[in-house]
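sorry for the late reply, my laptop died twice this morning and i had to redo everyting from scratch. anyway the thing you sent over, i finally got around to it. pasting the sequence first so we're on the same page, its 67 residues, then the predicted structure underneath. double check i copied it right bc i was rushing
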Amino acid sequence: MTLPRPRTEDFGARLSFDRGSPGRRAVDVPAWGGDERPLPDTHLLRDSLRLPEMSQGELVRYYTALS
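ok and here's the structure:
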C-alpha cells in the first residue's frame, strides 16, 4: 500500500502571522475599573504570547477564507 503524496501547491494562503503588521490589534480593550486580584504563581504564567497582529476585519476575512 502506498501513501498519498503530500500536496505541494500553494493556494495563496498565508498564515495569519505572515499577514499581520507589528503593533496592529484587533480590538482596543478598555481599562479595568474593578478590584485588582493577585496573579497566579509565576510558573503558571507565560513570558510571551505570540498572537497575529491583524485588525478585526482582517481576522474575520482570514478565517472566512479558510472555511
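Helices lie at 16-19, 56-66.
thats about all i looked at so far, will dig more tmrw
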